[in-house]
Amino acid sequence: MSNGSGSGPARKDRPRFGVRHPAERAGHGGRYERLAEAASNFTSSRAFYAVCLVLVLNFIAVHAAHAALTWQILAGDTMTAVTLLLLALLKNSERRAEHAVQRKLDAIAAAVLEQYEGKTRTARDDLRQAIGMDEEI
């Protein structure tokens, strides 16, 4: 199986087509990650619920009042745009959480394996680093 660039087999640590998820990139905490975290915090707040409620009520009012088609389209397009932004935000949060959980499971598995084999305890350090990782990513 090639990695999309024709340079040989795809490796597990190198994604196809050279695209990596933001949670897998070095230097977690870039501008996009900070924006996504702030947006995630805002969208789980009461203020955002109020904004959504106003948008929905506006959508209903525009259609109930049989407003001009332009206003109906504007109300629908606004709701669509908010929906798409929320979908992207949800997917970003989901992927970061999946990445953190997988790193924790890998660290636990390595620690159990080392204990079983009676080897040195290098996995213990990895396990300690993995604890609380979901808050870092």
Automatic annotation (TrEMBL):
Organism for this UniProt entry = Streptomyces palmae
Positions of the UniProt region annotated as Disordered? 1-25
Entry keywords, A to Z: Membrane, Transmembrane, Transmembrane helix
Protein name per Swiss-Prot or TrEMBL: Low affinity iron permease family protein
Q: Which GO terms describe its biological process?
A: transmembrane transport
UniProt feature, compositional bias: Basic and acidic residues: 10-25
InterPro entries reported in the protein's UniProt record = Iron_permease_Fet4 (IPR007251)
- Keyword Lyase in the entry? The reply is no
State the organism's lineage. Answer: Bacteria, Bacillati, Actinomycetota, Actinomycetes, Kitasatosporales
* Transmembrane feature ranges: 47-65, 71-90
